[in-house]
Design brief:
Number of strands: 7
Shape: globular
Largest sheet: 5 strands, parallel
Order of helices and strands: EHHEHEHHEEEHEH
Structural class: alpha/beta
Length: 205
C-alpha cells in the first residue's frame, strides 16, 4: 500500500507513544513521518493504555480515545494488548461485547472503528514478545493467561472481521533464549529502544 499523501492514525500504548526511543523521530511512528513527509501521521499512543477498561494505572482505554481520533483517516493501525496482559484483563468470549474483557473490549473497539471509518483500511498488530510473557505472576500480579492467548484473540478477531493482522509476536529477535532475560532491543524487556523501533517500522511498513 502506497502511504504517500495518506492520513494515518496510529492507536496504541506506550510503544506507539514512543516511550524508550531516544527521540520522537526514532520511534516507529516517527519513522513513518520521516519516510513519508507528504503523509499526515497522527500518533494516538498513550502510555499504560489498555484495550479494555481494566488499566491499573488510570490510563484512558483505547476505545474511549479512538472516539476522538480525526475522522478522515485513510489508514488506521491498532497496536495494543500488552497492558491488558499485565493488568490481568479477563479474556471473555468471541462474541462478547463488554468493556471489561479483552474479547469484549476489542470487539467494541472494532465495532466503533468499522462504523465510523467504513472506507478506511484498518490493520491490527499483535503484542510484541516480552520477558514475562509466560510467567504465571509478576510482582504479586497473577496473570490470567500467557501473552500468547491475548495474541491469539487479536488474530481471531482479525480473522472474524476480515482485517489484516501483523503478527509482531513472531519477532524472535525480541525474545531471549533464556526465559525472563531482557532483550538488548528493549530497555526493560518490553519497550523497544531505537533499534527495536526500527524493526517495528520495517515490520509494520
Amino acid at each position: 500500500m502506497e502511504l504517500s499523501n495518506l492520513k494515518i492514525n496510529f492507536l496504541g500504548d506506550s510503544i506507539t507513544e514512543g516511550f524508550s526511543a531516544e527521540t520522537k523521530e526514532a520511534s516507529y511512528v516517527g519513522r513513518f513521518k520521516s519516510q513519508y513527509p507528504d503523509a499526515i501521521i497522527r500518533n494516538y499512543g498513550v502510555g499504560g493504555s489498555c484495550v479494555s477498561n481494566t488499566c491499573i494505572w488510570g490510563s484512558e482505554d483505547m476505545r474511549t480515545r479512538a472516539k476522538r481520533m480525526e475522522p478522515d483517516a485513510d489508514l488506521i493501525v491498532v497496536f495494543g494488548g500488552t497492558n491488558d496482559f499485565h493488568c490481568t484483563t479477563p479474556l471473555g468470549t468471541p462474541q462478547e461485547r463488554t468493556e471489561g474483557t479483552f474479547y469484549g473490549a476489542y470487539n467494541l473497539l472494532m465495532d466503533d472503528l468499522l462504523e465510523r471509518y467504513p472506507h478506511t483500511k484498518i490493520v491490527l498488530c499483535t503484542c510484541l514478545p516480552r520477558y514475562d510473557e509466560t510467567w504465571p505472576a509478576r510482582n504479586e500480579v497473577v496473570h490470567l493467561a500467557p501473552l500468547q492467548t491475548y495474541v491469539d484473540i487479536i488474530k481471531h478477531i482479525g480473522q472474524m472481521r476480515d482485517l489484516p493482522v501483523i503478527d509482531l509476536f513472531t519477532l524472535e529477535c525480541f525474545r531471549e533464549p533464556v526465559p525472563g532475560a531482557i532483550s538488548p532491543l528493549t530497555q526493560d524487556g518490553l519497550h523497544p529502544g531505537d533499534e527495536g523501533h526500527g524493526i517495528l517500522f520495517d515490520c509494520i511498513h
